[in-house]
Design a protein that fits this description.
By secondary structure, this protein is an alpha/beta fold. The protein contains 27 helices and 18 strands. Strands 2, 3, 4, 5, 6, 7 and 8 form a 7-stranded mixed beta sheet that branches.
Length: 749
């Protein structure tokens, strides 16, 4: 959870947890008796409502508590770091503030606005019961928004109120204090009914409001995993001469004794006790000052200590965290491996298609691993090795839920499985870490993080871009020139075209943009449409279903723009750039405006560069054909003048095609002059028609209705259907359209 809620413990974090109790947790989990809630990867917040001030308020840190929370305007101003220091701090000291990204600020603002509407809808007596007169009770909550996502891409916009971690305001302390667990959960349960009623009747725009749903881990299909975990645990206990009655703290002390005796056998008992207390405090983040365990006191207790032993003692103190972490590591591994297996069946309630999100996470982590393994960075490789000790394999990323939170014996614990190592690896794309080069992952497509720039203008540029050519570059250049303040987002699909992948296309883009001094791929983001398509949403963001009740998907870049626009902060400005040869792309603006009337939507039509023949636009299909033919000379005509000297490198090294000489090309040309009837069978033609239909859909939005309202399918996925059924169900006139395409090559990507 983080934030004001504090740290939520793993089982191995509690030194007082006995091995008997740990085994009991394993047993309850394995038999399906462990109840709890989903752990989420959102933005933490403590939220309340002031009846006196008639406004929702929130707390993010200790500086906000004594003010009984800040309203939306004050909180956002604070997070925007509009002043160099926070005025009104409890201490009165000036404190530097780092600006919080706009997408996070907007998510908090939307959450506060929605919660305020809810609180104001309650009867006065209920307002006092739930919140007190002046924000006397703060609820531990999580903001789940596409515009503020972390590692996991949640589909559901929601302010999730947890069942525990709530706080009451203490007038004397001028701070909030933890509410007793039973009281906190009772408040959450009462609140849940009113939240559900409010959500069902809510007509205004805003986030969903809900209390974390109670979940129950499914019992293991086989007892082998449980039995193995218990055997490993018993082995660890035996190696350390421990029984079920002993606790994790004793495991730590037993190992510290062995370490100290090995290096300092003559150290007296009193000093050893002080040393263990100090190491213990360092590891668990407890205060050292005033506890009689400062370094000077420890040195003083070791009478007649030699300079050499003093250095050893200093080393033990300085390396406390690492030493104890190494001691706990075998136990942590046992608990971690068990957690991974328990979470295999846990689906996130905030993700519509958990399988797709798991596949997406696996793919992203695989890309990170590949970059590190192919790099010369020893620091990155060491970091990877540390994370792979837990992860072991990308295939062990088995759930899109961050974890599972449960109560046991008066404590709140979490199972997080492989989220932690996965999150650490994904974080390398966003944050610098030690000596790992910051540009190591610059060649990777950006994570599908929504809108992390510092403005409120969004420029969407849809296309196939496989591969990109000077026509695409022209479109991007003109669009960014017209709207220089807007952050550009390339919207494209993950499906390869004629052997050209998205990653290869991004590599080509990087080269072409580098040859232009005023553009850079790193200044753009990429919204990727997965191979299986995006969920088709209605105006309210609800997934559309077919007559069989199955969720509908679209691979069109237009769907990517539409879905993204639904998650934008209020009152944002949206620009949609497209070639005038693809006028239908402009129709998506009407759909967005209908679903989000608060957005300013503007089309940016751009005149295309001419193609090979008069009246034609430049075609990525023709460019790919040049690749397939091995025609480097023709391929060059698709590249800008500034990049002509890079043509062969792009052709062979980046895209992986072989350039043929003139004689080979002449021979191929003579073969292509054969009549259509001699070179194609009827079955071949229908296969080609299917490919073209798919291509047309992805390019022009042919699989979606763009006139108004939400995006909807005009054709169903026919991959699983038999050939005769395919042919029979082709929309009227579609065959004719496709044949025209094959003959004239006017429809392109």
């Amino acid at each position: 959870m983080g934030g004001r809620a504090g740290h939520m413990s793993h089982l191995y974090d509690n030194p007082m947890l006995t091995f008997e109790k740990l085994k009991e947790v394993f047993k309850k989990a394995a038999t399906g008796e462990l109840r709890g809630t989903e752990k989420t990867d959102g933005q933490n917040i403590s939220i309340s409502y002031s009846v006196l001030r008639n406004e929702a308020v929130a707390i993010r840190n200790d500086d906000h508590a004594y003010k009984r929370g800040f309203n939306s305007d004050d909180l956002i101003a604070y997070m925007a770091a509009e002043s160099p220091a926070f005025k009104g701090s409890r201490t009165g000291r000036s404190r530097k503030k780092k600006e919080t990204p706009i997408h996070v600020r907007n998510a908090y603002a939307q959450a506060l606005e929605t919660f305020e509407i809810f609180a104001q809808s309650l009867a006065p007596e209920l307002q006092l019961e739930f919140f007190g007169q002046d924000a006397d009770i703060f609820y531990n909550a999580e903001v789940m928004s596409a515009s503020s996502r972390n590692a996991i891409n949640y589909d559901v916009e929601s302010l999730l109120i947890h069942r525990v971690g709530h706080q009451a305001y203490d007038e004397e302390k001028q701070d909030t204090v933890s509410m007793p667990r039973a009281e906190a959960e009772e408040k959450a349960i009462k609140l849940e009914a009113y939240l559900e009623e409010f959500y069902n009747s809510m007509s205004a725009e805003g986030m969903g409001l809900q209390v974390g749903a109670v979940l129950q881990l499914q019992n293991l299909s086989t007892g082998a995993i449980y039995d193995e975990s218990i055997l490993r645990l018993n082995k660890l206990m035996s190696e350390n001469d421990l029984s079920d009655d002993n606790n994790i703290g004793q495991l730590i002390i037993e190992n510290l004794e062995n370490i100290v005796k090995q290096h300092m056998p003559d150290l007296n008992v009193a000093t050893r006790k002080l040393l263990y207390r100090r190491m213990y405090a360092e590891y668990y983040g407890q205060p050292v000052k005033g506890q009689g365990i400062d370094s000077r006191t420890i040195y003083k207790s070791a009478s007649d200590i030699t300079p050499e032993d003093k250095e050893k003692l200093k080393f033990l103190i300085d390396s406390s965290k690492k030493t104890i972490k190494d001691v706990v590591a075998p136990l942590e591994e046992i608990i971690h491996d068990f957690s991974v297996e328990m979470l295999r069946s846990l689906d996130s309630t905030f993700i519509l298609d958990n399988r797709k999100e798991v596949e997406s996470l696996q793919k992203k982590v695989s890309s990170i691993i590949q970059v590190i393994e192919n790099s010369n960075s020893e620091e990155a490789k060491e970091f990877l090795a540390q994370q792979m000790k837990k992860l072991k394999s990308v295939e062990n990323i088995v759930t899109a839920a961050e974890g599972f939170v449960f109560d046991f014996d008066g404590h709140t614990y979490k199972f997080t499985g492989n989220f932690a190592p996965m999150n650490q690896l994904l974080g390398l794309q966003k944050f610098s870490r030690g000596d790992i080069p910051s540009d190591l992952f610059s060649g990777l497509e950006p994570l599908n993080e929504a809108f992390t720039h510092k403005g409120d203008e969004f420029l969407f540029i849809p296309g196939g871009f496989k591969p990109p050519h000077k026509g695409h570059l022209h479109l991007i250049t003109r669009a960014t020139e017209k709207k220089p303040k807007a952050k550009p987002y390339l919207v494209t699909g993950d499906t390869p075209r004629d052997g050209v992948t998205l990653q290869q296309s991004m590599d080509v883009f990087r080269i072409l943009l580098q040859d232009k001094t005023d553009l850079n791929l790193d200044d753009m983001s990429v919204i990727t449409i997965p191979a299986g398509g995006l969920v088709i949403l209605d105006e309210d963001g609800i997934p559309l279903k077919n007559k069989d009740g199955e969720t509908r998907y679209s691979t069109s870049p237009m769907q990517g723009i539409y879905n993204s626009a639904l998650g934008l902060p209020k009152n944002s400005t949206v620009y949609i750039a497209y070639s005038t040869a693809d006028k239908e792309h402009g129709g998506i603006g009407g759909s967005i405006k209908k679903a989000r009337p608060d957005l300013v939507v503007e089309n940016l039509p751009v005149e295309p560069l001419p193609g090979q023949y008069a009246g034609e636009k430049m075609s990525a299909s023709d460019m790919r054909q040049a690749l397939i033919d091995g025609n480097l000379k023709k391929f060059k005509t698709f590249l800008p003048e500034d990049s002509q000297d890079r043509a062969e490198y792009i052709f062979t090294r980046i895209l992986g095609f072989e350039a043929k000489d003139d004689d080979e090309l002449e021979e191929k040309h003579s073969e292509e002059e054969q009549p259509l009837g001699e070179s194609f069978r009827a079955g071949d033609l229908y296969g080609l028609i299917d490919e073209v239909i798919e291509e047309m859909s992805s390019m022009s939005g042919g699989s979606v209705a763009l006139a108004s309202g939400p995006l909807t399918f005009r054709k169903e996925d026919k991959k699983k259907k038999k050939r005769k059924k395919k042919e029979k169900n082709l929309p009227e006139g579609m065959v004719e359209q496709v044949l025209n395409y094959l003959l004239s090559k006017e429809v392109t990507l």
